[in-house]
Amino acid sequence: MPIARRQPRDRAGLSDAAAPPDMSPLDQKLGFRLRLAQQTAFEAFHRLMSPLGLTPGRMGVLLLLEANPDIRQTALAEALRIKPSNLTVLLAALEAEGLLRRAEDAGNRRANLLRLTAAGRALLTRAKAAEAEVERQLTESLTPAERAALIAALARVAAG
């Protein structure tokens, strides 16, 4: 969908201050469109998930811990493409809230294994309903085939 275009300049070379800017240089820029889509996604996410105390990063961690009990902290950082030091801060907050527990890996005493607690599983159960609504809002203008194609295309872009 094209972005609003600026009105032509008057003879003095000045544009109408109330007219929207000419966005045509960005119309077909993938990076720009991805940023706008991310902003839209984050706004919808925060509107529905902030009452639960969840951010996109926290939700991603909880979902992966549910799917991968006893995952190593380093594997989680790699999967989420989060710097290990940033993940450590996030995990410490989740642990302090009683949502996850860390255990020393018996096979590698320097590694931590991560697992959701009962409280973490309970929060995630509540969050999944809100997350489903976020997903519905984000894709309500897409057919199921368009949604699947978009996800596949974004996965290829993200893979580099």
UniProtKB/TrEMBL annotation:
PROSITE patterns: HTH_MARR_2
UniProt keyword annotation of Glycoprotein present: no
Keyword entries, A-Z: DNA-binding, Transcription, Transcription regulation
Superkingdom of origin: Bacteria
All residue ranges annotated as the HTH marR-type domain in the record: 27-159
InterPro entries: HTH_MarR-typ
Residue span of region Disordered: 1-23
Name assigned to this protein: MarR family transcriptional regulator
